[in-house]
Amino acid sequence: MIQQLDLFEASHYLDVRRWGYFSILYRDNLNGEPSVRQESLLLSKMHEVIPLLGFPERRDYWISQADFSCKNRRAVNLAAIGVLFVDLDYYAIPSLQLMDHDRIAHLVPDRCKDLGIPLPSLIIDSGRGM
Question: 75 and 17 in one domain?
Fold first, then answer.
């Protein structure tokens, strides 16, 4: 089930109908030695490739939020960005420390409007922040 959920998530911000590449970074523990690896693969092959790479057995893996025109993640080859994640460590702001998560979540859209930035489509409580 984890494998299907992870693939479903990536399909929301990577358009498999586009030509280009996405990257998967993962932590392997081959022969008892951990190492980080990266593979860049065709967007159109995402649904075929992810299950073949042995997920979810590799617990630590990341899929690029962007797609690229070449088989690497260099900025010069950036083709499109479909999503942006932001970490809000509001616990570090004294005036917000005592507010509960729901109250903070209600303040975020107003602050975004004040700053002229896009509204979030999703806010997640990550423990000490959002």
Answer: yes
